Amino acid sequence: MITLRNVSKTYPIKGGHKDGARGHVKVVEALKNANLHVPQGSIHGVIGLSGAGKSTLIRCVNLLERPTSGSVTVDGQEMTRLSSAALNQARHRIGMIFQHFNLLTTRNVYDNIALPLELMGMKRAAIRERVMPLLELTGLTDKISQYPAQLSGGQKQRVAIARALASEPRVLLCDEATSALDPQTTGSILELLRDINQKLGLTILLITHEMEVVKSICHRVSLISDGELVEEADVGDFFTAPGTQLGREFLNDFLQLEPPKGLVERLEAEPGEHTHPVVRLAFSGDAVSTPLISRLARDCEVDVSILQAKVESIQERTLGLMIAELLGPAEKTRQAIDFLESHDLHVEVLGHVQRDD
Ligand SMILES: Nc1ncnc2c1ncn2[C@@H]1O[C@H](COP(=O)(O)OP(=O)(O)OP(=O)(O)O)[C@@H](O)[C@H]1O
Hints:
By secondary structure, this protein is α/β, with parallel strands linked by helices. The protein has 2 domains: 2-93 and 169-252, P-loop containing nucleotide triphosphate hydrolases (Rossmann fold); 256-354, 2-Layer Sandwich (Alpha-Beta Plaits), CATH 3.30.70. It has helices at 54-61, 84-91, 109-119, 124-137, 153-165, 183-200, 211-217, 235-240, 245-255, 261-266, 292-300, 330-342, and strands spanning 2-12, 27-38, 43-47, 69-74, 77-78, 94-98, 171-175, 203-208, 220-225, 228-234, 275-284, 303-314, 317-327, 346-354. The strands form 3 sheets. Strands 6-7-8-3-9-10 form a 6-stranded mixed sheet, with helices on both faces. A 4-stranded antiparallel sheet has the order 2-1-4-5. It has a 4-stranded antiparallel sheet with strand order 12-13-11-14. Strand 4 and strand 5 (77-78) form a beta hairpin. Helix 3 crosses helix 4 (124-137), helix 3 (109-119) packs parallel to helix 5 and helix 5 (153-165) packs parallel to helix 6 (183-200). It is elongated and about 80 Å long. The structure holds adenosine-5'-triphosphate (ATP). Residues 11, 28, 30, 48, 50-56, 209 line the site of adenosine-5'-triphosphate. Adenosine-5'-triphosphate binds at residues 11, 28, 30, 48, 50-56, 209.
């Protein structure tokens, strides 16, 4: 539904001094060769730190920013080749919502939602037929005549969602849609987006800096860093075993699952003669309910000291996470790790610490 191929975007730096030899203006490379495919009906999240290039990426999809190079295809149309009239038409099929809602303060809820349809030249009766079910879908029927100033942040975002849906788009772009909302309201807006995705089969591309958003509603996630898409994974796999250091940092920050500081300071990268491994274990499916730790002690003769553990629900999937020390002779702890991996646990050796004894 959405495909980005080798999309790059550079911005000239204002007042950036010219390189006299070649006469080039200095630029910021906000997006570097981005490749992304979001299939029909999927919810795809792009997460990254501030300044990583998230807004640039999402704005390249509907050409609010024109890529410097590369191609952007939405619903079979190559966006960069459209005339401005055709681009206008294509944008009716791409809804967008923003962090600060962007509602017109002088229009009430009904008129805000009706606005894109008025601009398309629709008749009043047809507009009403579109708007009324959207008020129902977004839970705003009783707010129909209120003005934005009379609404909470969550209600304003519901109006923005209804307005984005008014032109019956195939795709919804969400630019930090919950970042201005408290956690509870965030939850209800995410639930609404999930509902819309399921009921209308709408494809959603969202950018966020919040792992909670990724965890709650995304099917797949991409990580962006310094203008590059550095990792992409199914959300369950990402939470089990991120493939990059940045991914691990996002996950550890979110889960608050790290060895105690005192232990981190003693961690060595390589095993020594008198060290034992500290591991991060991630397990889902049958492994969550299998008594693997007691079997480690019994079958592998390794003691397990659990430093931290938690169980997370990632949509339909239950994920167990644990930081533990494996105590025993080197050969036995190696066997223990093999045993865990053979039972589909993801094992990451965080380092090795000297035995106290
Ligand atoms: N119009 C512009 N002119 C010049 N530089 C820009 C422009 N827009 C963005 N940039 C630069 O491009 C880079 C990526 O910015 P972008 O806004 O896409 O990041 P972001 O991940 O959305 O950040 P944030 O989460 O803080 O909004 C940054 O270095 C930014 O300063």
